Amino acid sequence: xxxxxxxxxxxxxxxxxxxxxxxxxxxxxxxxxxxxxxxxxxxxxxxxxxxxxxxxxxxxxxxxxxxxxxxxxxxxxxxxxxxxxxxxxxxxxxxxxxxxxxxxxxxxxxxxxxxxxxxxxxxxxxxxxxxxxxxxxxxxxxxxxxxxxxxxxxxxxxxxxxxxxxxxxxxxxxxxxxxxxxxxxxxxxxxxxxxxxxxxxxxxxxxxxxxxxxxxxxxxxxxxxxxxxxxxxxxxxxxxxxxxxxxxxxxxxxxxxxxxxxxxxxxxxxxxxxxxxxxxxxxxxxxxxxxxxxxxxxxxxxxxxxxxxxxxxxxxxxxxxxxxxxxxxxxxxxxxxxxxxxxxxxxxxxxx
Length: 352
Known about the structure:
- This protein has helices at residues 26-31, 45-57, 60-80, 101-113, 123-137, 155-164, 172-176, 194-206, 230-237, 248-258, 266-274, 277-293, 297-320, 337-351, and strands at residues 19-22, 38-39, 92-95, 118-119, 144-148, 168-170, 214-217, 222-223, 226-227, 240-246, 328-332.
- The chain has 2 domains: 11-132, 3-Layer(aba) Sandwich (Oxidized Rhodanese, domain 1); 142-351, 3-Layer(aba) Sandwich (Rossmann fold), CATH 3.40.50.
- The protein is globular and about 70 Å long.
- It is α/β, with parallel strands linked by helices.
């Protein structure tokens, strides 16, 4: 970017800045933000509520007077702490909800210091409109290769091996913080909001090269509680497929490893199994709980595969992925990273 001031900074300019600063409240930021943006609120949640109440119940003048004092103190704090080490030629892009007073306040002070700060035109709302438009447009620009296979076959592990081998990958389960199955909750992370998930997908799509194929794991319309963008799932459902084939004993071992956190939290496991009562009835669910309680994890996983996961795979995947019968098959021989790296290399060689 040149040293001249930009006119009308839009989402297309994001990559031209050294840092992106979101000055909205922490609650607004947690719901969604530009990926990688730093949250430096000029009003925190309580302060924003206070100013808003004054605006509605007293007057705009009183609200602005109180708000100006709060914003001034917060901006001073950010400069004295987080921003203290930024170099002379630092170029930040600042945004708030609509690109209004909150971002203008910080930009003004940063410019007075000598930093070449800019304000995102239209703020977060403009960014969000661009995300939604791109999620409708971008999925059709890529050649998708959908990795299919029953639960426990190692689809996610193969995706990671493909990425290590230099292939392009969009890992929706990583972005959604969920493995996509009834027991797919991550033990150490909650799922993001729907908007934040869409921002992560949007960022992932922008990193891809349309001239090269992109591998993605087969999903239904939802990953955990999050909806896959409609244009993306539609593109996936009509794409070419790769089917992972894994011995049952290895599938059981892979799932046991994924479910190991339930060893320490049986109640969480039982709560998830209860979600399956409408499908399988109380008797079967209690039998599965009994296997888990007895510590017979191989039998527990095998029972889930037989009665729940494998029938669901046959119903859902064959229904949605019409090109699965013509899929390129890849065999996984083992459960370690070497086995998946070897399978990834062989797959990429066959597709070259």
